Amino acid sequence: MDPYSLKKLNALRMNRQAAVHVTDLGDGRDRVIEESDVVAGLLGKAVLRAFRQGKAFTAEVDGRTFFLNPHLPPPRLVVIGAVHISQALAPMARLSGFDLHIVDPRTAFSTPERFPDTRLSADWPETVLAQEPLDPYTAVAALTHDPKIDDHALIAALKADCFYVGALGSRKTHAARIERLKQAGLSDKQIARIHAPIGLDIGAANPPEIAVATLAQIIEALRKRGLQVAGARAA
């Protein structure tokens, strides 16, 4: 690997930014491609595939063979609310490879007994997220039903362009939430990114089933997230 490419990759990793290291197997030349870089034609489509799948592969482009090795930040899941759904969601999220963090200022709920082997923050989301900012490789699931706890996290998630933003609650509850978020200065386009009611529509009827539906929706959003790679628009 070219020393410049290695230096660039390390810098991107430190900032939780994704990149694809592309090597021409014919002449050995390489380059590091970020998600915002313009890559045209068939190579651009291959780069898009690498970003989405997160797995290395070779691709034949115009008679040349390229090795594409994606370097993606580990996906994070920040759950707002140490509730029953969170108890079911936590072990499944860890098994699925997510760096899990549960945030709830209510100390009666945020206990190691209820959430063994789980990172907990018994503090307000505005305090926690100020110390650990959200980013596009983070999912946020707001599950408390309490606007004083959920709303700040939702606002922060939308402003940070998190790949997934979901909130528990009925359509009536969400309608009231929309009005609050508008008053907070969010646009209709930003608010429309919230998955509410949260989770895939599988007819979930209890906390474990809601947890399954939520995690499935988060995984879908991660694997199908929109990427600003020009190859996605190439003919």
Largest sheet: 5 strands, parallel
Helix percentage range: 25-40%
Second rung of CATH, namely the architecture of the largest domain: 3-Layer(aba) Sandwich
E-strand count:
9
Share in β-strands: 15-25%
Structural class estimated from helices and strands: alpha/beta
CA radius of gyration is: 20 Å
Low-confidence parts: 227-235
Under CATH, the topology of the largest domain can be stated as: Rossmann fold
Helices and strands, in order, run as HEEHEEEHEEHEHEHHH
* CATH top level assignment of the largest domain: Alpha Beta
| Total domain units | 2
- Tally of DSSP helical segments: 8
Overall form: elongated
* CATH superfamily annotation of the largest domain: NAD(P)-binding Rossmann-like Domain
Through-space gap between termini: 31 Å
Mean model confidence by pLDDT? 91
Q: Taking strands numbered 1, 2, ... along the chain, how are they ordered across the largest sheet? A: 7-6-5-8-9
Domain XdhC Rossmann: 77-218
Protein name: Putative sulfurylase large subunit, molybdopterin cytosine dinucleotide biosynthesis
Pfam family, one: XdhC_C
InterPro entries: MoCofactor_Util/Proc, XdhC_Rossmann_dom
Please, could you describe this protein's structure?
Residues 77-218 form the XdhC Rossmann domain. This is Putative sulfurylase large subunit, molybdopterin cytosine dinucleotide biosynthesis. InterPro entries: MoCofactor_Util/Proc, XdhC_Rossmann_dom. There is one protein chain. By secondary structure, the chain is α/β, with parallel strands linked by helices. Helix 3 packs across helix 8 (207-224). The protein has two domains: 3-72, no CATH class; 76-224, NAD(P)-binding Rossmann-like Domain (Rossmann fold, 3-Layer(aba) Sandwich). Helix content is 39%, strand content 19%. It is elongated. The protein has a five-stranded parallel beta sheet with strand order 7-6-5-8-9, with helices on both faces. Helix 5 (147-159) links the parallel strand 8 (138-142) and strand 9.
